[in-house]
Design goal:
mainly alpha, 162 residues, globular, single chain
């Protein structure tokens, strides 16, 4: 949910990879994104255009070079994702400032410890390639939640007693 506007966005990430290349999910292949990544994305102060662009980039990433989003030109990239060039430019800046993406020449990379489409070995290698100085999207953390000791131990045991 966007904290400024209250607008709720769908964070489903779709991929263009066919079902023959992996597990079948509605829409074909998939990109892996953990719970902490979903929370970081939800907590980030991003525009609707930035959310939209991030998810389009997840679907457009190069399957052989994990996380690489090829950008021939910003004009063609804007056409490819169905957004105006100005919106794409602002969204790229927001996503980079939050650490969800980082530049790779004239192309962009999705941060591999945030969202990934390969196996664990490939992800580990990709994480080592994150340039120094790229912001950490997990650093913000939620300040409105407090972690408390304990958990639900004993909750089931209490229910079983007469």
């Amino acid at each position: 949910m966007n904290k400024r506007t209250g607008e709720v966005n769908d964070f489903t990430v779709h991929s263009a990879t066919s079902a023959a290349h992996g597990l079948w999910f509605r829409g074909g292949g998939f990109t892996t994104m953990g719970y902490a990544a979903h929370n970081a994305l939800a907590d980030a102060d991003l525009s609707v255009s930035a959310y939209k662009l991030f998810h389009k980039m997840c679907a457009l990433q190069n399957r052989k070079d994990h996380g690489l989003v090829l950008v021939e030109s910003q004009v063609k990239f804007a056409e490819q994702v169905g957004m105006s060039q100005a919106s794409v430019s602002r969204a790229l800046k927001q996503l980079a400032a939050e650490g969800f993406i980082y530049p790779d020449g004239r192309n962009w990379r999705l941060r591999p410890d945030f969202v990934f489409n390969g196996n664990g070995v490939a992800q580990g290698q990709a994480v080592q390639g994150i340039p120094a100085g790229v912001p950490d999207p997990y650093a913000g953390g939620r300040v409105d939640l407090k972690v408390v000791d304990g958990g639900d131990e004993g909750r089931d045991a209490d229910r079983d007693q007469p």
